């Protein structure tokens, strides 16, 4: 089992009334201290151990005598064990050195695209359940509005470059903006390609999550567990005036219309209780648990 798996547990020091276990597991994973990050990456990239050891002087850099023997045995090909099996035999001080070496040389090792999630995110915070905005491609928003976020990235350590994940699972983590971040970042793209940075359609919904700055994308993003999203609303565009509007989940009648999509969220914040019958929908988790 990979080292990071231990962070996929309930966290007793956080109030699960406001955050689900997936939020807190991700938060704690992204907030690991440097030593734990080094150990984590040593396990994650264990199958590149042969290349990594070219940047380590085993006799000079490794202090543990037993670990020196293990690594020399690996380099000399004296065992049929896989590199991951060798990594599991090493103590934490040695793994710490291996992890540091990866971080210092990931570009030369051509490992940047395989780096774990925490490498890409900083300024991490938990956010309570609130309205979020998800950008998506043409044709996807209707499916999400009807079925929920049924696809996502399950692996907690593969959220840094999700475009490199070959196949999304049937459930997992997804990305969105807070209303503030949507106003600041979502429109920053070439309009000839997409209307928004990550697509042409919008979904509004409520969820808790983890907000963090992605140092590759140069923006704040909110990561949420897809099955935890509720009150999912598709954003429509009025073809006559180009304004954005949302419709009732009951009779599909237009509820409100604005020039800026983010104003829909502000309206929902103020008027949710009044229009709750037209807006409310349970999360996939609650539907499966038959909660009212």
Strand content: 15-25%
Helicity level, as a percent range?
25-40%
User: What would you call the shape?
Assistant: elongated
Roughly what is the average pLDDT, rounded to an integer? 85
Radius of gyration: 23 Å
Which H/E pattern describes the elements?
HHHHHHHHEHEHEEEEEEHHH
Number of helices: 13
**Using DSSP, what is the number of strands?**
8
Largest sheet: 5 strands, antiparallel
Number of domains: 2
Query: First CA to last CA: what distance?
Result: 37 Å
Unreliable parts: 9-14
What structural category characterises the helix and strand content? Answer: alpha+beta
List the helices and strands and how they pair.
Blueprint: H1 21-30, H2 34-44, H3 49-52, H4 58-61, H5 65-75, H6 83-89, H7 92-105, H8 117-120, E1 121-136, H9 140-147, E2 173-176, H10 179-186, E3 201-214, E4 219-225, E5 230-234, E6 236-237, E7 244-247, E8 254-258, H11 262-271, H12 276-279, H13 284-288
Antiparallel strand pairs: 1-3, 2-4, 3-4, 3-5, 6-7, 7-8
Helix pairs in contact: 2-7
Structure description:
Helix content is 34%, strand content 20%. The protein folds into two domains: 105 residues, no CATH class; 169 residues, no CATH class. A hairpin with a 6-residue loop joins β6 and β7. The chain is an alpha+beta fold and 292 residues long. About 2% of the residues have low confidence. The protein is built from 13 helices and eight strands. Strands 1, 2, 3, 4 and 5 form a five-stranded antiparallel β-sheet that branches. The chain has a three-stranded antiparallel β-sheet with strand order 6-7-8, covered by helices on one side.
């Amino acid at each position: 089992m990979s080292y990071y798996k231990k962070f996929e547990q309930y966290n007793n020091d956080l109030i699960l009334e406001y955050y689900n276990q997936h939020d807190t597991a991700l938060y704690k994973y992204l907030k690991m201290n440097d030593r734990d990050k080094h150990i984590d990456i040593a396990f994650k990239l264990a199958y590149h151990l042969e290349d990594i050891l070219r940047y380590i002087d085993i006799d000079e850099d490794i202090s543990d005598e037993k670990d020196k023997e293990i690594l020399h045995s690996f380099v000399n090909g004296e065992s049929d064990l896989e590199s991951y099996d060798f990594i599991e035999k090493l103590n934490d001080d040695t793994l710490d050195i291996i992890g540091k070496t990866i971080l210092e040389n990931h570009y030369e090792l051509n490992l940047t695209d395989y780096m774990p999630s925490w490498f890409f995110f900083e300024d991490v915070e938990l956010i309570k359940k609130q309205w979020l905005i998800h950008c998506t491609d043409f044709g996807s928003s209707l499916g999400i509005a009807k079925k929920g976020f049924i696809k996502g990235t399950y692996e907690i350590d593969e959220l840094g470059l999700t475009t490199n994940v070959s196949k999304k699972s049937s459930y997992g983590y997804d990305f969105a903006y807070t209303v503030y971040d949507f106003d600041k970042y979502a429109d920053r793209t070439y309009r000839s390609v997409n209307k928004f940075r990550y697509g042409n359609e919008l979904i509004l919904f409520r969820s808790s999550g983890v907000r963090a700055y992605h140092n590759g994308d140069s923006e704040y993003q909110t990561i949420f567990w897809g099955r935890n999203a509720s009150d999912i609303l598709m954003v429509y565009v009025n073809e006559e005036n180009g304004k954005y509007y949302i419709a009732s989940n009951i009779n599909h009648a237009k509820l409100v219309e604005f020039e800026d999509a983010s104003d829909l969220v502000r309206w929902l914040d103020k008027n949710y209780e009044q229009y709750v019958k037209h807006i409310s929908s349970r999360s996939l988790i609650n539907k499966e648990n038959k909660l009212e």
